[in-house]
Amino acid sequence: MSAPKLALSAIVGGIIVFCWGFVSWDLLALHPLGTFTNEDAVAAAIRANAPTSGVYLIPSANQPAAGADKAAQEKMMEDREHTGPIVLAAVQTGGMSLSIPVFFVRGLCIDVIGALFVSILLGMPTGATYGKRVLFAALIGLTAGLLVSAPNWGWWGFSSKYIACEFVDLIASWTLAGLAMAKLVPARS
């Protein structure tokens, strides 16, 4: 596989995946995100209780009740899990630059690097037809959904609708990219 064809495939595939993300998130608005009824109060509570940037979980097993024995702590944790809320949040205590160009450049770079890896994989099957290599790219999207998105449903309670949208995104974007990339990177003979 020639380096120029591999690079072209990675760039074209990355751009297609990036463009699908714009269609999915902005034009079709497929991703159901809720809003808090009082965002200022929630932000104030997070500022007061999240000392550093990081990923936080409620309920947290790392916050034992003062004076409670292990059995009492486990019971309290179980009660919290059943009554809620359950929250998994990425917190940036100092905020983030909301520069749209920076987000776009980061996203496009991630997509191009992913497309580079998929291009390498597409060139590996010996004698595979164009259709089989497109299917291979689609299966990469499905596999990514199973390995990355589905655990958010299984472990953290992300809604089924949100996870379904993630699967649609991954399968659609990598199928569309695969249509172009399978043409640009020939299978080994």
What's the oligomerization state? single chain
* Low confidence ranges: none
Number of helices: 6
Strand arrangement, largest sheet?
A: 1-2
Helix content: 55-70%
**Kindly state the mean pLDDT as a whole number?**
87
Coarse morphology? elongated
Find the count of extended strands (DSSP E, 2+ residues): 2
Largest sheet: 2 strands, antiparallel
Helix-and-strand structural type: mainly alpha
% residues in beta strands: 5-15%
The helix/strand order is: HHEHEHHH
What distinguishing features does this structure have?
two-stranded antiparallel ribbon; 66% helix; 2 domains; mainly alpha; 189 residues; elongated; single chain
Description:
The protein has two domains: 3-34 and 97-184, no CATH class; 54-91, no CATH class. The chain contains six helices and two strands, in the order ααβαβααα. The chain has helices spanning 3-27, 39-49, 70-83, 100-122, 130-156, 160-184, and strands spanning 54-58, 87-91. Strands 1-2 form a two-stranded antiparallel sheet.
Summary?
The chain is mostly helical and 189 residues long. Helix content is 66%, strand content 5%.
Task: Detail the topology: elements first, then pairings.
Elements: H1 3-27, H2 39-49, E1 54-58, H3 70-83, E2 87-91, H4 100-122, H5 130-156, H6 160-184
Antiparallel strand pairs: 1-2
